[in-house]
């Protein structure tokens, strides 16, 4: 592999990887020694450090990943906010088909809608990516009808089961309100005596 081919391959791997690509993963994928892969990574990092680049390669969490350079964060933020419709970050192609297919089957078994595939797609779009929307200075609400953050006392299990089946479900468990504090970290110490049957 020529040095140019190595650089191009490293760039492609780091760009395509969802998580930081480790030295072991890279060396194995390229069938090169770790020392050769590391030298190539060092050169790639240096190549992206020049002022004429808007992104850089950083070592993070034991691997390498592309990031927008700090001096460009404001312009990127403005760009994303200006898009109509707004930019939607998605998971790699095909990844969401697994939960969507599983939800279709659950919804079919529940018999709660005439179009299980359409309902499953709406649920997947609501849950992925795994960020929870919240409107500042408003009451938190995590329910079957919608999400706006989550209160410590919201029953997440009931909501998730209800979303899966498109039917309100209350499995009977209650959130223990006695163990919630008014300040961070919000949960008190675990109960001293576990319940024994």
Summarize the structure.
By secondary structure, the protein is mainly alpha-helical. The chain has helices at residues 3-16, 23-30, 34-47, 73-82, 97-110, 116-127, 156-165, and strands at residues 21-22, 55-60, 63-68, 141-143, 146-148.
Set out the fold topology:
Elements: H1 3-16, E1 21-22, H2 23-30, H3 34-47, E2 55-60, E3 63-68, H4 73-82, H5 97-110, H6 116-127, E4 141-143, E5 146-148, H7 156-165
**Count of DSSP H/I helices:** 7
Q: Helix-strand pattern, N to C?
A: HEHHEEHHHEEH
Taking the alpha carbons of the first and last residues, their distance comes to 65 Å
Give the fraction of residues assigned to helices: 40-55%
Structural class: mainly alpha
- Counting DSSP E segments of at least 2 residues, the number of strands comes to 5
Strand content: 5-15%
For the biggest β-sheet, the strand order reads: 1-3-2
Overall outline: elongated
Low-confidence stretches: 87-94
Whole-number count of domains: 2
Q: Whole-number average pLDDT?
A: 78
Which features characterize this protein?
197 residues; mainly alpha; Arc Repressor Mutant, subunit A; 2 domains; three-stranded antiparallel beta sheet; two-stranded antiparallel ribbon; 7 helices; 5 strands; 42% helix; 10% strand; elongated
């Amino acid at each position: 592999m020529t040095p140019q081919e190595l650089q191009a391959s490293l760039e492609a791997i780091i760009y395509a990887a969802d998580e930081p690509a480790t030295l072991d993963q890279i060396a194995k994928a390229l069938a090169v020694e770790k020392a050769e892969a590391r030298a190539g990574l060092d050169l790639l990092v240096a190549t992206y450090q020049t002022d004429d680049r808007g992104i850089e390669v950083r070592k993070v969490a034991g691997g390498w990943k592309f990031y927008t350079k700090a001096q460009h964060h404001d312009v990127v933020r403005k760009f994303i906010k200006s898009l109509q419709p707004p930019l939607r970050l998605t998971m790699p192609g095909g990844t969401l088909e697994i939960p969507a297919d599983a939800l279709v089957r659950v919804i079919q078994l529940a018999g709660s809608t005439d179009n299980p595939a359409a309902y499953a797609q709406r649920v997947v779009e609501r849950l992925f990516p795994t960020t929870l929307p919240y409107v500042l200075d408003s009451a938190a609400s995590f329910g079957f009808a919608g999400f706006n953050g989550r209160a410590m006392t919201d029953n997440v299990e009931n909501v998730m089961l209800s979303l899966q089946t498109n039917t309100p479900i209350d499995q009977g468990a209650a959130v223990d309100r006695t163990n919630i504090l008014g300040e961070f970290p919000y949960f008190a110490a675990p109960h001293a005596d576990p319940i024994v049957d």
